[in-house]
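Hey L., structure's done. Input below.
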Amino acid sequence: MSLEGDIYTALSGATAVTDETTAIFPEHRLYETTAVALPAVVYSRLAGSRVNDLSGYSGLENAVVEIDVYTSSVDKRRIIGDAVVATMTAATAFKCILTDSPIDDYISEENEVKEYIRTFDFSIWTT
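Output:
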């Protein structure tokens, strides 16, 4: 299975995540089919490298993956964000670490907050 498939399997199989949302997407939210469903989790590969040694390709790959949590409240952003981190770091199909502290943001229209966002960057090792 691909890394993206493994991430989806981990997130969609975690009760702590799916109790809050089943809107889990690769790359971007599907606005047309979900009517801008919140909350949502979006994951995408930002970069990656194959690990080589003196014998050539070692069979290891290291990817940088960003996961964004979109919610309509600050509390849900924290709850789902904590569930995503716990799920990713406990995954058995890959090994990963959170590389930075999460970044919080929001989207507003006419001085009204519409969405709260928490962004995580993970370094993920696969074979």
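Helices lie at 3-12, 15-18, 31-34, 74-90. The first strand starts at residue 24 and ends at 26.

-- N.
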